[in-house]
Amino acid sequence: MAGTFDGQMDEVRVYSRALDAVEVGLLYSSALLRQLVVQGDPAAYGSPSPLGYGTNSVTVSTAVTNSVAIQVSGGAGARYVCTGWTGTGDVPPTGAETTVTFTVTTDSTLTWNWRTEYYLDTGAGANGSVDVGDGWYTNGAVVAVTAAPSNGYQFAGWTGDLPPSSSASNPLTLTMNQARTVSAAFSWISPIVPPVSLYSPSDETTGPWPAFSWPAVTGAEKYRLEIYHDGRLWKKRTVKAPFWVFRKELPAGSYMWRVGTGRRKSMVWSPWISFTCATGVPAKGVAEAQKGTQPGTTVYTWATDPRAAAYDLRIDANGAYWKYVGDITGTSATIAGHAEGAYTWWVRGVNAEGPGEWSAPADFDVEKQSVAPLAR
Predict the structure, then answer these.
(1) Cβ atoms within 10 Å of 229's Cβ, excluding its own
(2) CA angle 193, 199, 201 (to 5 degrees)
(3) Distance (Å, rounded) from C-alpha 352 to C-alpha 194?
(4) DSSP assignment of 28-42, as one string?
């Protein structure tokens, strides 16, 4: 032979005829090709480029750069996010990017890894809010959403893509194994006026000094009180506490009253309550009366009520209202200006929750002072 061969032969082929130039070229190129398998985990999402999913033939020593989109749609409310790759052969073992570059020398595998995410759409109706906004969550993530009503309102339930039997749960716990839309609803808190009591005149005959009171409403910042006297609007008051006391004597007659909460244009009212005011009808109480005095100054004293922070004193003269003194800090009051006549008086305790009952009436007379005749 003209020369010697020092290499190693891994394949010998014998042909019965001479091969033409095209056939020789094909034999030469196939010996220089390697297989690159591109696949996806858990599935083939997106479109790798320039080499797509499947088996690709690549010439030995070719530098390959392959890439995918960072995320692709999975339909309404779903998407697949690329978290990187894993590889065998010439492909680097792992990577967290969406592009990989390598040089082909042997058969290799490139696997693009994907994470499934679902969209959570949260909402709140009027007069409230939720503490979790819209966003994407990994498949299987657990999310807790809390609804918060505005003042004067209460949580009324959830609607949307809810787990079974969870429409009244607050907070609402969601497992994000699907796209979900949830919305919280809120309703007015309606005040309820209590039945007849000493503190809330209702369907009864009361004295001229009733205290209007009602149960506190959770979340209510203010109350609107309306009182009608003999069929006409008599008093309108906006108060923060669940009671109101008229500091003067109510005129005799028939009354209706109600309490509302909320905004003026959408006020929620209690039922109407009616009562009759008959001047001079007292309530029971703890006062002790002092009887018999002379015209001028009189000292009123009464027993201590341990519940009271202060006291109110009301005095009638000759069957008609004469004087009212409020916020007395002790258990006595000195009042001047008494003329001759018959007097009736009441006292009641007052604390942070409002006034209590009027005492039983106490009577005394102011007599004309006699003058001794001059000595002769």
Answers:
(1) 17
(2) 65
(3) 20
(4) HHHTTEEEEEEEEES
